[in-house]
Design brief:
40% of the residues lie in helices and 14% in strands. Strands 2-1-3 form a three-stranded antiparallel β-sheet, sandwiched between helices. The two termini are 16 Å apart. It has one domain: GIY-YIG endonuclease, CATH 3.40.1440.10. With 94 residues, the chain is α+β, with helices and mostly antiparallel strands. The protein is globular and about 30 Å long. Keywords: Endonuclease, Hydrolase, Nuclease. This is Endonuclease. InterPro entries: GIY-YIG_endonuc (IPR000305), GIY-YIG_endonuc_sf (IPR035901), UPF0213_domain (IPR050190).
């Protein structure tokens, strides 16, 4: 499960994937398709992620977070990444 934002941090996108590196590459390569949410709002900066033991748990967590208010999502992101710096999976130390 992961959360992306745009350059000015005004939009959040919550998604789920079994390959976060590939997924981030796809988001950043073309900023998503123009007609889809991530392309329309240029969400390509990873600011939060969680690793789940299985797909069912990851999907359940994604659904849970998607139903949260923006304030609650902001609080969650701040627990892992208080500066909202884009996370580079190659260098991230948590």
């Amino acid at each position: 499960m992961y959360i992306l934002t745009n350059q000015v941090r005004t939009v959040l996108y919550t998604g789920v994937t079994n390959d976060l590196t590939r997924c981030l590459h796809e988001h950043s390569a073309g900023l998503g398709e123009a007609g889809k949410f991530t392309g329309r709002y240029q969400c390509n900066l990873l600011v939060y992620f969680e690793i789940s033991p299985g797909a069912k748990q990851a999907i359940a967590r994604e659904k849970q977070i998607k139903n949260w208010s923006r304030v609650k999502k902001d609080f969650l992101i701040n627990t892992l990444n208080p500066g909202w710096e884009p996370i580079d999976l190659q260098t991230w130390s948590g």
